């Protein structure tokens, strides 16, 4: 049963004992104190009392330390928990000592532990996250286990209510998302789930979009989005039935760089959507050695179910905004050349472009009618596209290039004086001179007629346009 050679199981011996069970104190405070005394006697920080309900399944009814917080939300399954199975079959305490936290049962990890069968239906687990237990005899372990089990019988109703409220709070927080982008929605879902389950590492992967969100807390070795995307792609390609909870990933490691030597101890993989549209991976590491309780798994499932609507709404919103943006671009763009159209041009002229000074350049494509008459409009369109490309490549990012109609173009140069406008016109002429020509039209060269005018700050930009057109 040793794991990686690090666990040293202490010799198990059996001694008959006639020590009577201690009396049962009255009241909740006395019951807890009796369990605390049992824990102190064997050097344990955590105590778990399990009672069998059916077959190999036992439920946790109460405890001390982590055993108190986990009451009602962890179980023992003899088929899945080999240390518990050994203690049950041998009817003797099974002790564990390790140089680092290791899995004792289900989600519980400890450095020192003892699994003590009290009867065929009751088992008590003592544990400590950082040190070995006291080297007490089997008789002492049995006596203290009986004392703990006799003081802890059922899960308190208040504990069950608190667990249910924790689940509802996590779902409510998830549904309160007010962000806009898909990336924000992914981050919100992942952070909500990881923190609700006290995970140090997590990832959310959108299958169709190949997008990944990463959550990391603590000192886990450096991992980046690209590496995690590779892990999630591999997990998605496996097509396994989900959810999948691995309480000890020593035998079922994740793909690199989250493999056996990475510090990952347990993980919970959930599918989102039906059909599956996303994967969520939640991880516990050596920084917080533990697995996933029954409550954690239930919270994870509920969050995965709710996440579908959050992600779908964000995706739909993004698609709608993209469509609106496309339509706006088409409304303000010339469909042939791809530059702005007259509507965009006129809007720019009245938007205050002249407040700090601007220049207007008006351009006509020479001989366009002759090209259309001789070669056809298909070639005329190519000349218009070439003119638009020359003007765009000559302009700055802040300038507006527009087709005003027919063979006429306009360029609005914001925040420019006459000297800057002259340099722009020179760039146009240089690009026209170096243009290779239109394939299939060797008898026609690209030629542009250019007029320009500069408007002083606070001047009339419309008058500048008329002046540029007049001097063209």
Task: Using brief descriptors, characterize the structure shown.
5-stranded antiparallel beta sheet; alpha+beta; Beta-Lactamase; 15 strands; Alpha-Beta Plaits; 472 residues; 40% helix
Task: Please describe the topology of this protein.
Elements: H1 28-42, E1 46-54, E2 57-64, H2 66-69, E3 75-77, H3 82-90, E4 94-105, E5 108-117, E6 122-128, H4 138-151, H5 157-175, H6 182-196, E7 201-206, E8 211-216, H7 225-238, E9 244-246, E10 264-272, E11 278-285, H8 294-331, H9 342-349, E12 358-365, H10 368-375, H11 377-394, E13 400-405, E14 408-414, H12 418-433, E15 448-455, H13 461-471
CATH topology description of the largest domain: Beta-Lactamase
Relative helix content: 40-55%
Separate helix tally:
13
Q: How many structural domains in the coordinates?
A: 3
Mean pLDDT figure:
88
Helix/strand class: alpha+beta
Please state the overall shape, judged from the principal axes of the Cα atoms: rod-shaped
Relevant CATH superfamily of the largest domain: GAF domain
Instruction: Quickly give the CATH architecture of the largest domain.
Output: 2-Layer Sandwich
How much of the sequence lies in strands comes to 15-25%
Distance between the termini: 91 Å
Radius of gyration: 37 Å
Task: Please give the largest β-sheet.
Answer: 6 strands, antiparallel
For the record, the CATH class of the largest domain is Alpha Beta
Succession of helices and strands: HEEHEHEEEHHHEEHEEEHHEHHEEHEH
Question: How are the strands of the biggest sheet laid out side by side?
Answer: 3-2-1-6-5-4
- List the uncertain runs: 1-27
């Amino acid at each position: 049963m040793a794991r990686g050679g690090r666990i040293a199981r202490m010799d198990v011996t059996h001694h008959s004992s006639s020590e009577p069970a201690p009396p049962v104190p009255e009241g909740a405070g006395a019951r807890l104190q009796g369990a605390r005394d049992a824990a102190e006697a064997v050097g344990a920080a955590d105590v778990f009392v399990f009672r069998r309900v059916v077959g190999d399944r036992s439920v946790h009814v109460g405890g001390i330390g982590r055993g108190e917080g986990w009451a009602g939300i962890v179980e023992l399954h003899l088929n899945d928990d080999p240390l518990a199975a050994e203690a049950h079959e041998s009817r003797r305490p099974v002790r564990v000592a390790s140089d680092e936290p290791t899995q004792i049962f289900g989600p519980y990890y400890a450095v020192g532990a003892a699994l003590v069968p009290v009867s065929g239906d009751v088992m008590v687990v003592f544990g400590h996250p950082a040190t070995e237990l006291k080297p007490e005899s089997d008789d002492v372990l049995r006596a203290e286990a009986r004392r703990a089990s006799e003081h802890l019988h059922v899960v308190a109703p208040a504990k069950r209510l608190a667990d249910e409220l924790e689940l509802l709070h996590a779902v409510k927080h998830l549904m309160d998302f007010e962000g806009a982008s898909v990336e924000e929605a992914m981050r919100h879902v992942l952070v909500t789930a990881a923190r609700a389950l006290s995970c140090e590492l997590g990832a959310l992967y959108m299958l169709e979009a190949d997008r990944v969100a990463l959550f990391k807390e603590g000192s886990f070795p450096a991992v980046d989005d690209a590496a995690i995307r590779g892990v999630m792609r591999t997990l998605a390609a496996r097509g396994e039935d989900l959810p999948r909870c691995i309480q000890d990933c020593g035998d079922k490691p994740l793909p690199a760089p989250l493999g056996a030597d990475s510090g990952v101890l347990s993980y919970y993989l959930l599918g989102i959507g039906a059909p599956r549209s996303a994967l969520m991976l939640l991880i516990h590491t050596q920084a917080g050695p533990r697995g996933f309780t029954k409550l954690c798994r239930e919270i994870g499932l509920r969050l995965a179910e709710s996440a579908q609507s959050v992600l779908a709404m964000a995706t739909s919103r993004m698609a709608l905004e993209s469509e609106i943006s496309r339509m706006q671009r088409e409304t303000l763009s010339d469909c042939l050349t791809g530059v702005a159209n007259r509507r965009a041009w006129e809007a720019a002229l009245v938007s205050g472009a002249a407040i700090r000074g601007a220049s207007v350049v008006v351009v006509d494509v020479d001989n366009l009618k002759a090209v259309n008459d001789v070669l056809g409009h298909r070639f005329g369109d190519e000349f218009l596209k070439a003119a638009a490309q020359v003007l765009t490549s000559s302009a700055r990012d802040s300038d507006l290039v527009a087709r005003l109609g027919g063979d006429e173009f306009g360029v609005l140069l914001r925040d420019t004086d006459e000297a800057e406008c002259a340099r722009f016109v020179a760039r146009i002429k240089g690009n026209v001179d170096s243009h290779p020509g239109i394939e299939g039209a060797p008898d026609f060269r690209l030629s542009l007629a250019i007029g320009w005018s500069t408007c002083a700050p606070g001047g009339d930009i419309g008058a500048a346009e008329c002046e540029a057109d007049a001097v063209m």
